Task: structure prediction
Amino acid sequence: MQSWIKASVGFLVILTMTFSRDTSARAQAAHYDLVLKGGHAIDPANRLDGVMDVAVSAGKIAAVAQDIPANQAAKVVNVTGLYVTPGLIDIHFHVGHGGAPLDWFTSEARSHIAPLGILADTALHSGVTTLVDAGTAGADTFVQEKAEVIDHAKVRVLAFLNIVANGMNGGLEQTVNQMDAQRCAETIRRYPDIIVGVKTAHYWTSDPWDAEHTPWAAVDRAEECGRLANVPVMFDFWPRPERTYADLILKKMRPGDIHTHVFAQQFPIVLPNGKINPIMAEARERGVIFDLGHGEGSFWFRNAVPAVQQGFVPDSFSTDLHTGNFNVLSMMEVMSKFLAMGVPLDDTIRRSTVNPAREIHRPDLGTLSVGREADIAVLEELHGHFGYIDCGYARMDGNVKLVARMTVRAGRILYDPSGLSMVEWEKAPPQYFTTPALGNSTRAKADDYPRQ
Ligand SMILES: [Zn+2]
Result:
């Protein structure tokens, strides 16, 4: 008798739990704002790689599952044949003016000192939902960059703070007393949600050393700021006899620090015998991170191809987009080059999502985990004949190319140039076909799904 009661109570508890789970699931399902249906989801953070629907609710990832019923969503987008990945993270990008004088457009100095940053939201065209400004601004100029760009961008913008207080492009990059580790760390502590690390770049690459300009001044001061603020340092570096690359990556850099521009021409990563320099593996064992930082002058197939063939792939891919190269570069181009060199698609996605998220200590980003902000890229892999270029004006031919088809940031479709989410114009609802009355400038749209 006793055991019968226990069993009955147990049965009732299970029944109740099942019932409440069902009703809450239905309630939740009814509130899906958007379902991306039929795509091949790749989410390396969750080891997910297969055909799955992705549902979005209130700006967050609500479900990643097979066959989410279409009638449970306010909006369904058919992404069959496409890849659905976490929104990409480009950790080397430039926004803002970089310390360039505000009267730049009328200044006679404009041919030498120009605003460096490009429109942040252009990154959405490449499936990027988070970008990290790589030291365009320093302690003195960050607030302006924040007010002018970061606070208004639709793409999420984070930043490495330049160790130079004035920033990257105001003409003070070589002034060592501009590199104040205390002020740098204070600024980072003031904006912990935005500033993720320190940046040093372009320091004293060819002039003779003097009392002010000692070989490691910029590196040492950036490291000091990194220690004070407990954040990683990103290095743009030029080796010289008194300041070698081996010393940077084997002695100066701390675990978690990032060397960007790893395939630039100035680094001895491939030895004369064609083998990858063993210091690369040694540095990785120490926890040093290597980032691509393609840029206008930092990507050479003569380094990249032998390195990739021998299994050395940068931990993260990034563009180093700025006003000098925005017309030839994008995250899609960068990732396509690695696909064309033979890096598998899921690994290419990993190095553009979860890896950079970890590098900047933001594990909440670069994943499709349920509950995270719904930052999503929809990508297409094309097959054919494609040419790719490097910074030495050499070409590599490939047979694969990645194209961004749609970008969702915090649940909103912000980029959809081929209309995946839109109705065919002939099937549009009546309001689309109305001609506004004179004096009425309200635009009649085919679709009221919330966009930008
Ligand atoms: Zn850069």
Q: What stands out?
A: Residues 2-29 form the longest helix (28 residues). Residues 62 and 234 are 34 Å apart (CA to CA).
